[in-house]
Design goal:
mainly beta; Immunoglobulin-like; three-stranded antiparallel beta sheet; 0% helix; globular; binds tryptophan
Length: 73
């Protein structure tokens, strides 16, 4: 059941974490990827991943548009 859409995360500071959470009755972290400023991760929702948590300052591009995570001034 992988969603064909990709989510793009562009880190705007060092140490941004992209955390994958499991699909199913248990919702647990299963993967954490650390991005430094300017690094990009391209990811999908899959059989194993139902949600993602972004920690740190990043731009997140998806079918829903662009959102910014991280500290607001
Ligand atoms: N093995 C994971 C999966 O197939 C890889 C993955 C896909 C992932 N999307 C992710 C990891 C998003 C972290 C965040 O689901």
């Amino acid at each position: 059941m992988t969603n064909p859409d990709y989510i793009i995360i562009r880190a705007e500071e060092d140490g941004v974490h992209v955390i994958g959470l499991t699909r199913g009755t248990d919702t647990k972290f299963h993967h954490s990827e650390k991005l430094d400023a300017g690094e990009v991760m391209i990811a999908q929702f899959t059989d194993h991943t139902s949600a993602m948590k972004i920690r740190g300052k990043a731009q997140i591009y998806s079918a829903h548009g662009v959102v910014e995570s991280g500290n607001k001034k």
